[in-house]
Amino acid sequence: MTDSIHLNNHHRETLKKIFSHPTNHNIEWVKAESLLASVGTVHGEHNGHVKITVGERNETLHRPRHKDIDPEMVVLLRKMLTGAGITPDTIEKSGK
Predict the structure, then answer these.
(1) pLDDT digit string (tens) for 24-42?
(2) What whole-number distance in Å separates Cα of residue 24 and Cα of residue 60?
(3) What was the pLDDT predicted at 48?
(4) Are 15 and 7 in contact (CB under 8 A)?
(5) 41: helix, coil or strand?
(6) What distance in Å separates the CA atoms of residue 49 and residue 7, rounded to the nearest whole number?
(7) Prediction pTM value
């Protein structure tokens, strides 16, 4: 999967924040959404939900009310990205 992924510096930084420990509490939703759109598909729904597909995994999330995503969403995004083979290490090793 990572062979066809090309992330810009903003996406790489967001990816690092999602995988940082302890959990980063300053990850903006618009940046996370942009990252997800670059590695999968993101479709907003009229009810405020967002359908996301990354690799084989599909999730429907509530669009955050605030600009930053909460720790539970960070954990969910880690699982989605890891399941698709997308981590800071795999992106760095692929050189993309």
Answers:
(1) 889 999 999 999 999 999 9
(2) 22
(3) 87
(4) yes
(5) strand
(6) 25
(7) 0.88
Nearest-CA neighbor of 40 among 53, 51, 23, 31? 53
Counting other chains too, the contacts that 16-20 makes at CB distance below 8 Å and 24 or more residues apart are: 16/88, 18/74, 18/77, 18/78, 18/81, 19/78, 19/81, 19/87, 19/88
Report the number of secondary-structure helices (H) and strands (E) in the chain: 4, 3
Long-range contacts of 5-13 (CB under 8 A, 24+ apart): 5/38, 5/39, 5/86, 5/91, 5/94, 5/96, 6/38, 6/96, 7/35, 7/38, 7/39, 7/91, 7/96, 8/38, 10/34, 11/35, 11/38, 12/88, 12/91
Confidence category of residue 3, pLDDT binned at 50, 70, 90:
low
Tokens for 15, please give them: 């990816």
